[in-house]
Amino acid sequence: MKINRVRHSISRPVFGAILISSAALFSGCGDDDDGSVEAMDFGSNIIATMMPARDGVELETYIYLPEGEGPFPALVTRTLYGLPISPIGGYPGGDIDDDDLSEEEAIRLGWPLINERGYALVIQNTRGRYNSGGVDRSWLDDASDGYDLIEWVNSQPWSDGNIGVFGDSAVGFTALLAAAANPPSLDAVYAQVAPSSPYGIDFMPDNGASKLESLLLQGGSLAEDTSQAHRQALGLSIERVQSILTETQQYLEQLFFGLDNPLESPAWMELPLAEEKPVAELMPFWNAIRERDLERRYRDELNVLGKIQIPTYLVTLWQDVFFDSTMALHKDLSARHIPHHMLVFNGSHYEIDDPGLWQRPVMLDWFDHWLQNADNGITATPEVIYTVQGTDAAVSESDSWPPAGTEERIFYLHSDGSLAASAEATAAQRSYTYDPANPVITDGGRHLIAAAGTRTQGTLLDRDDVLGYYSQVLSANRRIAGSVNAYLSVSSSAVDTDFIIKLLDRSPGGELYLVLEQLIRVSRRNGRYAGDYLQPGEVVGLDFNLGDIAHEFKAGHQIVVAISSSDFPAWDRNLNTALSSFTSDSYQSSLNTIVNDIDKPNRIVLPEYIDK
């Protein structure tokens, strides 16, 4: 998921040299009677130890104790990215730069604010990373390992048994996985810009393509900090690891520098895409993009929906790569009446670091209430607190989502390129040719590493393979809040192809801003593994759910819908052949058509918010 907040920038794994993990931090350390390993010169309040998981694998763990006799409540986090852990949730100190830190200096940093609030802080490096034992299987062991850590913390003499788990992005996902395992000693969870089902919703949706920019770049970068135990378990020599990391570094650089113009990038345009890359030897996860059985396992097992039973605080952004699965978790918790809150800001994934977003840091208040019985009002706030895109980011509140007062507003897509409140009365249609060799380039949206957010769309609607539909100029502000849905009747000359709908906001000056988008792979319209291929010319209906949003279209603006068949490299290209770009080098162009079915007209449904 996210490249670590200290290592969180893609710059470290892509621009810097990928390095072999250095010598064990515990060299020169002695064993205590209780099995812990005291790290020398780290300070009297820091304990370094190896925690045994249920299968005997030992996981590198650090404990930071506050002043006083104890016992203490504890906050726990499990990280893929090593130490230090940068503060999250709008608290100060998030600009730590670890480029010049020694390992000992990194360990000493911890997060003092947590100790100052009276908590023990526990940081564990996940399985197969840094100096933790075992094999890194990319989150498949994090539910059980997280459970084991929570119960281990509960058994320690410095713990009073009140325990919370927290994290950000991928580290937030390990927190949610631990919570979903339902360890009996866990009291509350806080997760921001973190997914609840990344492979089932965000990266490999049921009816869509695969999210290349996240899977390839982020997945490849995780090879850097695999542990010596991980590499030995895979039977890799030091020389082979060095070779893999060098080749992976070169490949990641090609991908990263090709993001803005992938059509000129051999790494992005090669077919089959990412075939037999050496990183697969070091990161078995890599094979999930090419092997259906492994893909199914990631989609099924790494899904916390329906499982979390404890109070949960979620923070996300409208254009976060993990927004859809975060919203799905919010709706799941609401339906099951689990105490929780959700905070949504304007922005994309990495903008969560901006302290200007936060009117009030909430993480420690959340834990103060649930772990220390503080009467601080955190649970008295409305269930959803959010800002609205297109406004000055003033905070709105609602006891539910969507907020009360939303009404459906239907705009029909007419063959003359207009959006209107009445349906078209003729069977006219519009067509375009989609060429996989010349896809629409990604420019904005809910992405991890590619250009993200509500970006201007430039000359998108000047392309021959993009259809535009324009509303009349708005006479008053129109705010939407909730889920945006659409329906298209389509046909194609190919057995399979993609259709993507973008909802855009057009300013009086003609600038187009992306609000929402969704891509449907026609063969997956009834499920990812359905294989419902087309007969040439066959007309099928596609039901789009573009996701949830709060956005205001200002007076003088226009609501615009754009339809095309690609968004690359955010999503893998459809080759129009029923074969995957991960396994095939053959492709063809397709004539794709928007068919006007008079009985079921093409439309987009907006949840207009009426402030009553």
Count of separate DSSP helical elements: 14
- Number of DSSP-assigned strands: 23
- Straight-line N-to-C gap: 40 Å
Strand content: 25-35%
Helix content: 10-25%
Main sheet attributes: strand count, strand direction, barrel closure: 10 strands, mixed
- Oligomeric description of these chains: single chain
Spans of at least 5 consecutive residues with low confidence: 1-40
Over the alpha carbons, how many angstroms does the gyration radius reach? 25 Å
> Quick one: overall form?
globular
Structural class: alpha+beta
Lateral arrangement of strands in the main beta sheet = 3-4-6-5-7-8-9-10-11-12
Mean pLDDT: 90
Give an account of the 3D structure:
The structure is a single chain. Helices cover 20% and strands 26% of the residues. It contains 14 helices and 23 strands. A hairpin with a 5-residue loop joins β13 and β14.
Short structural summary:
With 612 residues, this protein is α+β, with helices and mostly antiparallel strands. The protein has 14 helices and 23 strands.
Topology:
Layout: H1 11-15, E1 30-31, E2 37-38, E3 46-52, E4 58-64, E5 72-79, H2 103-109, H3 112-116, E6 120-125, H4 142-154, E7 159-168, H5 170-180, E8 186-192, H6 198-202, H7 212-221, H8 228-233, H9 238-257, H10 266-269, H11 279-282, H12 292-301, E9 312-319, H13 323-335, E10 340-348, H14 363-372, E11 384-386, E12 396-398, E13 406-413, E14 419-420, E15 429-434, E16 467-470, E17 478-492, E18 498-506, E19 512-521, E20 540-553, E21 558-564, E22 590-595, E23 603-609
Parallel strand pairs: 5-6, 5-7, 7-8, 8-9, 9-10, 10-11
Antiparallel strand pairs: 1-2, 3-4, 4-6, 11-12, 13-14, 13-23, 15-22, 16-21, 17-20, 17-22, 17-23, 18-19, 18-21
